[in-house]
Specification:
five-stranded parallel sheet, Rossmann fold, single chain, 15 helices, globular, about 35% helix, alpha/beta, Cobalt-precorrin-4 Transmethylase, domain 1
Length: about 475
């Protein structure tokens, strides 16, 4: 953030009838060649100094004594220090912060600054503020400022956190490159083709390459396109991302998953994807339900493959949104093969799988030294027409087995485990709708598994966890 800072109100607003009447208009101050004054020498003043250090403004700190951080800035030449407060401290300043820690002194300093026609922010005294400091998402030179006119700072911080997860850390450097290349674009790219060119830079392959760490390749492509007089004619190329939506709660998505949802032109999803997850997508993205649901039309896998490929061939960015992790019982292989046969780029964006969410719900590990050193992910289901899998074949002492899509096979699992030697009283844990508001946790004996699921009216969306402990072996004490 080099050129400007912060939304503000006018320099001399009329006094409001009450605090709730205060309104402000967001602006960005130019800081190049200007000064920002900070009155105060303690931690609150240091906090403001940290903000201004992100700009190119000259910093003047006015205080009798400086805490160590501020003293260090002065010693390094990054700020100037004055022990005496005079009207000259505010003359010509872009704006000022007042953070003396004394309410009476703050009010006096505010009056002095206002007399000098200097907009002022008085820390923790909104009624005395001409300038408010927003929550900032900084992708220099791209800056997002979030404010609530002092009504909801916790909410503004939450919004900031969400934006931080959506905007790649290196996005600003792409904007900076665009700024440096703009004169070349104006000279080499015809006006009629410039909009398409910039759309390609910021929405197409260059942005994708840049945000995924391939900055040099992206820059080379952009410069080549400028030399050619515009974006490549075949620049509109589709892609497919198989994105893991996680177990349900939308705040368990990865940052990359959120990015792909924000970039998608069309999203294919199934019934296990929570509606709140879809709210993270672009508002104008097309959403297509392709899952199996009671009373609804069932999409066969071949048809899903065909529509994914067809949309990508139109040059669209396609997201196939799958619950959990696409690579764990998500039939990802069939869709990847179909997309690759069509010559379309495809990627997998991993997600938190249901077994991990179940362990979190239980507050217990999936593996534990001396108890279970092997984790088995398996399923009791098979494709239509195929025999049911032997899903207990890897169970044994020292294992934890997570059974996916196995509620309907609970009786068979119980019988098979008992036949392999696990006692009928062995504890079993079941997590239904892990991470969702409807989450339930069941604990029962192995011989009561089927009945416990029936009593809970559980017909699906559950993980069954069975830990078969190792034989008891004393662990050596460590110093």
């Amino acid at each position: 953030m080099r050129r400007g800072f912060g939304p503000t109100a006018t320099t001399d607003p009329p006094p409001p009838e009450k605090e709730t009447d205060v309104k402000s208009f967001p602006l960005f101050f130019r800081t190049s060649g200007r000064r920002v004054t900070i009155v105060g020498g303690d931690e609150q003043a240091a906090q403001k100094a940290r903000l201004i250090l992100k700009t190119d403004a000259e910093i003047l700190i006015v205080a009798d004594r400086l805490e160590p951080e501020l003293a260090g800035l002065v010693a390094e030449g990054r700020a100037r220090h004055s022990r005496r407060l005079t009207p000259d401290a505010f003359a010509g300043s872009a704006f000022a912060f007042v953070a003396t820690g004394c309410p009476g002194l703050d009010a006096s300093v505010q009056a002095l600054a206002r007399a000098a026609r200097c907009p002022v922010n008085v820390v923790d005294q909104p009624a005395l503020c001409d300038v408010t400091t927003p929550a900032l998402v900084d992708r220099d030179p791209v800056v997002v400022a979030i404010g609530s006119e002092g009504t909801a700072p916790v909410l503004t911080r939450e919004i900031k956190t969400r934006l931080e997860t959506i905007l790649p850390q290196n996005l600003g450097s792409l904007a900076a490159l665009a700024g440096r290349l703009r004169p070349s674009v104006e000279a080499r790219v015809p006006r009629a083709r410039r909009r398409a060119f910039w759309a390609w830079v910021f929405k197409g392959a260059p942005r994708t390459d840049w945000t995924q760490g391939r900055e040099r390749a992206a820059a080379a492509d952009i410069k080549a396109a400028i030399g050619a007089g515009g974006a490549p004619r075949d620049a509109v190329s589709g892609s497919v991302s198989l994105v893991g939506a996680g177990p349900g709660a939308r705040d368990l998505l990865t940052l990359r998953a959120v990015e792909r949802l924000q970039e998608a032109d069309v999203i294919f999803y199934d019934r296990l994807v929570d509606a709140e997850v879809l709210e993270l997508a672009r508002r104008d993205a097309e959403r297509v339900f392709v899952g199996k649901h009671v009373g609804a039309h069932s999409w066969p896998q071949d048809r899903i493959n065909d529509v994914i490929v067809a949309e990508a061939r139109k040059g669209r960015r396609v997201v196939r949104l799958k619950s959990g992790d696409p690579a764990v019982f998500g039939r990802a292989g069939e869709e990847i093969d179909a997309v690759r046969r069509a010559g379309i780029p495809v990627e997998i964006v991993p997600g938190i799988t249901a077994a991990s969410a179940a362990a979190a719900a239980l507050g217990a590990p999936l593996t534990e030294r001396g108890v279970s050193d092997t984790l088995v992910l398996t399923t009791g289901m098979a494709r239509d027409g195929a025999p049911l899998p032997d899903c207990t074949r890897h169970a044994g002492p020292g294992t934890t087995t997570a059974f996916y899509m196995s509620v309907g096979q609970a009786g068979r699992i119980r019988d098979d485990l008992q036949a392999q030697g696990l006692g009928s009283a062995a504890p079993v844990q079941v997590v239904i709708d892990a991470s969702k508001p409807s989450q339930q946790v069941l604990q029962c004996r192995l011989d009561a598994l089927e009945q416990a699921l029936a009593d809970a009216s559980c017909t699906g969306c559950a993980i069954i966890l069975v830990t078969w402990p190792e034989a008891t072996v004393p662990l050596a004490r460590t110093a």
